Amino acid sequence: MSVDQPTKKSLGDAEHLRVLGYDDSFIRSMSWWGNFALGFTYLSPLVGVYSLFALALSTGGPPSIFWLVIVGAGQLLVALIFGEVVSQYPIAGGIYPWTRRLWGKRYAWMAAWVYIWAMLVTITAVAEYGTGFLASLINLPVTNEVTLGLAALFLLVAFGINFSGTKMLARVARIGLAAELIGVVGLGLYLLIFQRKQEFSVFFDTMGVEGDGSYGAAFLGAALAGLFLFYGFEACGDVAEEVENPARRIPTAMIMTILVGGVSALFSFGGYVLAAPDLQAIVNGEDADPIPLILESSLGTVGAKLFLVVALTAFLSCVLSLQAAASRLLFSFARDGMIPGHTWLAQVSPRRAVPVNALIVACTIPLLLCVLIYVGGSTLLMRITAFAVIGIYVAFQAVVLAALRQRIKGWKPAGPFNLGAAGLLVNVAALAYGLFAIYLLGRPGTSGVFLDDWIVLIGLGVVMGSGLLYLFIAKPHSASHAPEGDAIEMARQIREHPDTQ
């Protein structure tokens, strides 16, 4: 893998963007640390572990922790491919411009359509899940009305921070990064060292979770523990036009997001398992929300309250990063004239240098979804969240597949970050992993309730089906004349540009 090319210079940020067909629309005020913090707080190991800890243990027992390693390794392969792509195409919006330049505008339209909805649903879900922490901190009953009001508060506060500009976004993301590291690494180490109630061998003990069946099936069922956690690193690329030297910095920020996020999640998940006073009850499914009890028994009432403050910071930072990423994707989509209202959505505030109208949409739709969940109940939240995870994985693999297609046609990535001769092997392995992950996410359940068992595939089918219908009937791509499918030609132009000689 090569990050620096000692014999050649790289294009300047503005010139690189100009070669790709765009002019600077943003202010490059985000540092590498800010970019890393954005990806990390989107990935949010604290949010991921808290949300699925009980489900993972009741499905796969303590060995379900190994899914963090398996999925982390697979997503690292994907991040390496993304790194090559963003290094050649450091354009705002991530998934959409990458798939457009690697394949074509119709392919990109579908990938972006799925990804936009998955992100908007994820924003909604994180805001909803965070309400329990806030309600506990301020001693409010967790009623439907309170949940709706607090979720709206999360979304509006995140919008206000995003609206204030990229510098404020990066600053709050760094605060969120610190809160995450305290909440997952610091707390995890404390639980492992001082509050351990289980032996380390428990991670190889199924504790009877398989019943009379095969443990292999139970272990596969716990895959969501890792699959739900390891995305968000792509957000580093969504703000590519707001980062200095993005062709070099963003790939390393994405890789560090995976590595640091994975280690943090292992400490957190492992600490909760080893500190659980009644682990068997969690595995048996008798305790659906075990973490508050673990924290109170380990930290006391005051300590548990302090953790709630840390957790709230992490949830807010996660919503903030999601909103920022979604707005940049909408902006990039609109800038190429690919969606209705594209002129309005593509506007960037001259004062704050952020896509304000796209931010409004990235806040308003999740607000409406929160109202829908209020009407439909918490079951609806779980159902739309299930779609969000598989939708993001499908969009990811759209990039990986398109990169492999171009590589087979002769593409050699021209950015300063590239995998060299290992690129083809990593690309194939990333695609194989991604298809396996999509299979695990899309497998029908076995509850016997049709809607619950098939909801993931139904949700994906509705979004993709509606997207295809709109694509072929309205032809939103027909008026867009931005470059497409030019990976090989762009690589040649970048290498031959006078500034790279």
What does this structure look like?
The protein is an all-alpha fold and 501 residues long. 71% of the residues lie in helices and 0% in strands. The chain has 20 helices and no strands.
What's the arrangement of secondary structure elements?
Elements: H1 13-19, H2 32-43, H3 45-60, H4 66-88, H5 95-102, H6 105-137, H7 144-163, H8 166-194, H9 215-221, H10 224-227, H11 235-238, H12 246-275, H13 279-283, H14 291-335, H15 342-345, H16 356-376, H17 378-408, H18 423-442, H19 450-474, H20 487-496
Helix pairs in contact: 2-8, 2-12, 2-14, 3-12, 3-14, 4-12, 4-17, 4-18, 5-6, 5-17, 6-7, 6-14, 6-16, 6-17, 6-19, 7-14, 7-16, 8-12, 8-14, 14-16, 16-17, 17-18, 17-19
In a nutshell, what does this entry contain?
The protein is mainly α and 501 residues long. The chain has helices at 13-19, 32-43, 45-60, 66-88, 95-102, 105-137, 144-163, 166-194, 215-221, 224-227, 235-238, 246-275, 279-283, 291-335, 342-345, 356-376, 378-408, 423-442, 450-474, 487-496.
Key descriptive features of the protein:
71% helix, globular, single chain, 501 residues, mainly alpha, 20 helices
Briefly note the structural class of the backbone. mainly alpha
User: What is the H-and-E element order?
Assistant: HHHHHHHHHHHHHHHHHHHH
Uncertain runs are none
| Terminal Cα span | 21 Å
Shape: globular
Extended strand count: 0
How much is the average pLDDT?
A: 88
Radius of gyration of CA atoms, rounded to a whole number = 22 Å
